[in-house]
Structure formats: C-alpha cells, structure tokens
Amino acid sequence: MSTEEDEAIAALGVLSDPLRRKLYRHVAASAGEVGRDDAAQAAGVSRSLAAFHLDKLVAAGLLAVSFRRLSDRTGPGAGRPAKMYRRADGEHTVSLPPRSYDTAGRLLADVVERAGLDRELQAAAKAAGAADPDAKGDLVEVLGARGYLPFWDGDTLRLANCPFHALADEFRALICGMNLALVEGMASEEWSASVDPCPGGCCVSLRSINKSH
Questions:
Q1: Which SUPFAM superfamilies is this protein grouped with (predicted)?
Q2: Which CATH class is domain 3-87?
Q3: What is the domain partition of the chain in residue ranges?
Q4: I need a labelling partner for 38 at 20 to 30 A (CA). Which of 71, 116, 117, 197 fits?
C-alpha cells in the first residue's frame, strides 16, 4: 500500500466521528472561512469541543487554517487574530482494491478533446442530467447530494465544489462545457445556468428565473 493511500485512509478515518463529519460538512459547504464560534453553534457543541475536533480535521489534511482579526481594532487591546477554517484544497480518495478510474477519465477526455467531440459530450451530459432520477426534486438538494456544495450568493446559486476538479484542471474547456450541460439537464425550466466560476469552486452558477430563494 502506498504512502498516499495510507494518508487518504487515515484522513477519512478521522471522519468516522459523527461530530467531526458535521463540522467538516459545515466548513466545506460555507462560502468563506468559518470561525470556531460559528462552527460550534452549527454543530450544537461548546466552542472548546468544536476547536478540538476542527484541529483534528486540520491535522488530517481535511481543513486548512488561516488567522485574521474579526474587527477593525488594532493595537495592544485588539486581541489575538481568530483562527479560521476552510476546506483544504487536496483530495482524498480510497479504493480497495486500488482502481484507476482517474486514468481512464483522463484518457477518455483526451480522446474526446482531440476528436472535437465536445458537442456530442455535452448532449450526452445534458441527457444524463435530465435522466437523473432525482432531477425533478429540489435542485439545491440534488446538487448538494452530487457533491457540488451549493450556496446562495444573493440571487445567484453558486457551487463551492467541482466534482470533476482533477479533470477540469487538465481539460478545462471540455469538462466545464460538459458540467454546464449536466447541470442544465438536472435543472428545470425555472433555472438559468451559465459559466460563472466560483473562486476555488465550480465553473457553473445558476439563477432562479421565476422566484427568489
């Protein structure tokens, strides 16, 4: 077993604790950085207990940390900068026994791109989205279940995570076009989807045409 696989198993093992899963999901789904007080309130636990588990998630490489002041005060009486948490950039994937779906995905993406089959891929993606058995349900819930981590930014529904991140980095135009078509297929006529990247997240955003959230 490789060191990388060992690290992935260890990281995912940290999430066996229900409270840590709850804290991780809250931070991962947040549009910005999350402080200890906010995380504790979301999880319904004390600040000290939330801090303990948040730092365990940091040690496992699942969350990243930064420090900043939460007020405009400066000088000796301003206090220490607050510890803030956000979803870490890395990915953790475990397959037992090991599989190489990522290699197959890259090879297929390369062939499709070289052959100029973008439109055919987008048509297939839109059809797959429309055929999704959950596509007629609440779109926010559907996207959440598919790993997009949707959140409202005013009247725009943004997606904090790209489920195809690794492929999108290498085949951006191809994968973003496919992703847009897939989301359009899942969305009803009440939604308008467009390529409007969320920093650190998905390239697609949506707006509700007929009603506000």
A1: Winged helix' DNA-binding domain (SSF46785)
A2: mainly alpha
A3: 3-87, 101-208
A4: 197
